[in-house]
């Protein structure tokens, strides 16, 4: 499905893409080791194009979604969402995402995603309810962008990889997976833009569905890639790990 985006929003999306530039998410996780993919240089480039100001006005929800889509496609650090919308790390039940040096106390918690989780943090304030609607919209957009990039990767692989004397894309089973993934991807994009409406409020119900939907898209993508989809050096695993991480944090918040 093709979506028509307001030219001004597309211009902002181009600015975000330019700020991301050649940045690439870390390829291989270090299992059992605490990881934080926060990148201050990337954050500074995004701040220069106005990313950090988007929570200040409901009228800026459109640009927030446009930018969130681009960050999801890049599998960018999640702190870029939290800082721009909540004004700091996302903190839930004694845990803070990308919290080192930004919260008091606690200890590093190793995860399979570079969220820089700090656990056992005392006296963490809950997210500001007035900021949650824009955080929710941007998180939906991030998941939509993540699903879009993963699906594009799978389509390219299915067209170029041959099995049984023909491209994978000609096989009915692969076509069915691509179709299912495309339906969820389009649904995520539509939900993200719906959350950009000034009176949309916090999209709790949509977020409860979106994490799992994005994870399903990334699971289809891994299956279409076959063995290389699970190989660390291939990089496809990044989409699934990030989708699952976002799903877990969202479920904890809800």
Features:
mainly alpha, two-stranded antiparallel ribbon, 53% helix
User: Element order, helices and strands?
Assistant: HHHHEEEEHEEHHH
Number of strands: 6
Helix content: 40-55%
Q: Report the principal-axis shape.
A: globular
Number of helices: 8
**What is the average per-residue confidence, as pLDDT, rounded to a whole number?**
92
Cα separation of the termini: 30 Å
Walk me through what this model shows:
The longest helix is centred in the middle third of the chain and has 29 residues, at 132-160. The protein has helices at residues 7-20, 40-48, 61-73, 79-86, 132-160, 172-194, 204-225, 237-253, and strands at residues 91-92, 95-96, 107-108, 118-119, 162-163, 166-167. The two termini are 30 Å apart. The protein has a four-stranded antiparallel sheet with strand order 1-2-4-3, with helices on one face. The protein is built from eight helices and six strands, in the order H-H-H-H-E-E-E-E-H-E-E-H-H-H. The chain is globular, with a radius of gyration of 18 Å.
Summarize the structure.
53% of the residues lie in helices and 5% in strands. The protein is mainly α. Helix 1 crosses helix 3 (61-73), helix 3 packs parallel to helix 5 and helix 5 (132-160) runs antiparallel to helix 8 (237-253).
């Amino acid at each position: 499905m093709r979506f028509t985006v307001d030219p001004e929003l597309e211009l902002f999306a181009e600015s975000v893409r330019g700020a991301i530039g050649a940045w690439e998410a870390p390829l291989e996780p270090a299992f059992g080791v605490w990881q934080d993919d926060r990148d201050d240089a990337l954050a500074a480039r995004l701040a220069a194009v106005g990313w950090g100001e988007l929570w200040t006005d409901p009228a800026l929800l459109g640009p927030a979604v446009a930018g969130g889509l681009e960050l999801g496609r890049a599998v960018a650090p999640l702190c870029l969402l939290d800082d721009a919308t909540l004004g700091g790390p996302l903190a839930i039940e004694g845990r803070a995402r990308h919290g080192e040096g930004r919260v008091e106390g606690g200890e590093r918690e190793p995860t399979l995603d570079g969220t820089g989780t700090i656990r056992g943090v005392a006296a963490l304030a809950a997210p500001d309810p007035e900021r949650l609607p824009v955080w929710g919209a941007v998180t939906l957009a991030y998941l939509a962008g993540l699903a879009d990039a993963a699906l594009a990767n799978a389509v390219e692989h299915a067209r170029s990889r041959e099995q049984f004397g023909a491209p994978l894309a000609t096989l009915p089973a692969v076509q069915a997976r691509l179709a299912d993934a495309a339906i969820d991807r389009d649904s995520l994009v539509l939900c993200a833009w719906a959350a950009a409406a000034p009176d949309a409020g916090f999209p709790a119900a949509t977020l409860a569905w979106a994490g799992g939907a994005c994870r399903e898209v990334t699971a289809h993508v891994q299956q279409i890639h076959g063995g290389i989809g699970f190989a660390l050096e291939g990089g496809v695993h990044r989409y699934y790990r990030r989708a699952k991480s976002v799903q877990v944090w969202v479920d904890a918040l809800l």
